[in-house]
Structure formats: structure tokens, C-alpha cells
Automatic annotation (TrEMBL):
Protein transport recorded as keyword: no
Family membership noted in the UniProt record: Belongs to the ABC transporter superfamily. Macrolide exporter (TC 3.A.1.122) family.
Keyword field: ATP-binding, Nucleotide-binding, Translocase, Transport
Ranges where the ABC transporter domain occurs: 2-230
One of the record's GO molecular function terms: ATP hydrolysis activity
InterPro entries, A to Z: AAA+_ATPase, ABC_transporter-like_ATP-bd, ABC_transporter-like_CS, MacB-like_ATP-bd, P-loop_NTPase
The name this protein goes by in its record: ABC transporter ATP-binding protein
Pfam family for this entry, one: ABC_tran
GO cellular component: membrane protein complex
Keyword ATP-binding in record: yes
SUPFAM superfamilies: P-loop containing nucleoside triphosphate hydrolases (SSF52540)
Highest rank taxon of the organism: Bacteria
């Protein structure tokens, strides 16, 4: 589903060069739920951004669905992101002036001609029902709790039925009870067929995934299969 081959990522300014990732070789299989852990600044979010085609490696190759994307034009990358990848962020990134339903519908607006207005609304409603927020469709983000905002963000990520979901600290801003609820939703999405890659600082959340990759100073230092704990 996702393959990173001999990846290196270097950030350069006029005075300094920072090696963010080095010698990354990682394959995420279809249907897998993979977590990424490591100390702050070790390259976790950079790795996720490369998988999500939000950034490009300095050297190496990224493949999505077996296809190298290194030579894709920006417009092709944008189309691939919109059709194949859903993003969940720690800070939700909801638009305060839009209703919950309108926020969820946003990714579909960029699919030129693929869905009509009524069908977009129906898909957004279905996504909100999946995360248990069908009774909050007309609310605005300021009227929601942190856990509800994250569920809206998940609905927005899945509304286009992407094959891949990338989650950057999805439980990081939530208390343990809300974090467990969000994690249960992600587990169900994975059980329904979504491939999920999640960055987390929480070992207990990582242990509820299939596989754990550890980073340190931009390098992979661990890659282990887990016995998934279905308990809360």
C-alpha cells in the first residue's frame, strides 16, 4: 500500500543543514494498522508527511499502491491525496465559521464533478454517523468538546472513502477517556478495511495497533508486530 525506499530527508537553510530522516525503508501493507513512536524531534511527523505526499524526500522513493510518485506533478499529487489519503491532525484543523456538516464535506468539494451537492451532503452525513455525531451536524466547532472535534476531523478524513488514513497524534489533545473513544473508532475503521498509520507518544495507544515502528534521531531503530489488545 505504502512503500518508502532508501528515504533521506534534509532541511537546508543558508546557514544550517538538518538531517530529519535517514535510511528509511518501510512498507505498510494494505489493511495494516501501524503506529510510529519516538522522542520529540525524531522525525515522526516528517515521515508521516512523506507518506501523505505533503512533502518530498531529498533522496529515495515513495510508492503508493505500487506506483512511484517521485516524478508526479503537483496537480497529480493533489489528486492522489484527495482520492486515496485521509488526514487526521492533533489540532483538528476545523473551520470555525462552517457547520460540522460543512467541515466534513470539504474534501469532496475538490473532486471535480465526481459528486453533486446532494450526494456530497449525504456522504458527509454518513461519515458523521460512523463517528457517532449525527446529532451534531448543524453545530459549529466552538460548540463541541475536544473529543467531538476530533470525531469531526475523523469524519472529514473518511468522507471520501480513502484507502489510507494518516493520523498525527489523534489522541494527543484529549483526556484518557476521550482518547480511548477515538482509538476505538480508528480500530473499527481499520477492521472495516482502512489502512492506518498513526503517530503517537502514548505507548498504551500504540499497543492497540498491529505493528510499532520506533524512530530515533531520524532513523528506524525498531519494527515489531504487536499482539493487539482489544480491551479499553
Amino acid at each position: 500500500m505504502i512503500a518508502l525506499k532508501n528515504i533521506e530527508k534534509v532541511y537546508r537553510t543558508s546557514t544550517i543543514e538538518t538531517l530529519a530522516l535517514t535510511n528509511i525503508n518501510l512498507t505498510v501493507r494494505a489493511g495494516e494498522f501501524l503506529s510510529i513512536m519516538g522522542p520529540s524531534g525524531c522525525g515522526k511527523s516528517t515521515l508521516l508527511n512523506l507518506m501523505g505526499l505533503l512533502d518530498a524526500p531529498s533522496t529515495g522513493q515513495v510508492e503508493i499502491g505500487g506506483q512511484p510518485v517521485t516524478q508526479y506533478r503537483d496537480v497529480d499529487l493533489a489528486r492522489l491525496r484527495n482520492q486515496k489519503i485521509g488526514f487526521i491532525f492533533q489540532s483538528f484543523h476545523l473551520i470555525n465559521d462552517l457547520s460540522v456538516l460543512d467541515n466534513v464535506e470539504i474534501p469532496l468539494l475538490y473532486r471535480k464533478g465526481d459528486e453533486t451537492g446532494p450526494s456530497r451532503r449525504e456522504l458527509a452525513r454518513q461519515a458523521l454517523e460512523k463517528v457517532g455525531l449525527s446529532n451534531r451536524m448543524k453545530h459549529f466547532p466552538s460548540q463541541l468538546s475536544g473529543g467531538q472535534k476530533q470525531r469531526v476531523a475523523i469524519a472529514r478524513a473518511i468522507v471520501g472513502q480513502p484507502a489510507i488514513i494518516l493520523a498525527d497524534e489523534p489522541t494527543g489533545n484529549l483526556d484518557s477517556a476521550m482518547g480511548n473513544e477515538i482509538m476505538s473508532i480508528l480500530q473499527q475503521l481499520n477492521a472495516d478495511g482502512s489502512t492506518i498509520v498513526m503517530v503517537t507518544h502514548d505507548e498504551s495507544m500504540a499497543k492497540r495497533t498491529h505493528r510499532l515502528v520506533r524512530l530515533f534521531d531520524g532513523a528506524m531503530v525498531g519494527d515489531s508486530l504487536l499482539m493487539v489488545n482489544e480491551g479499553r
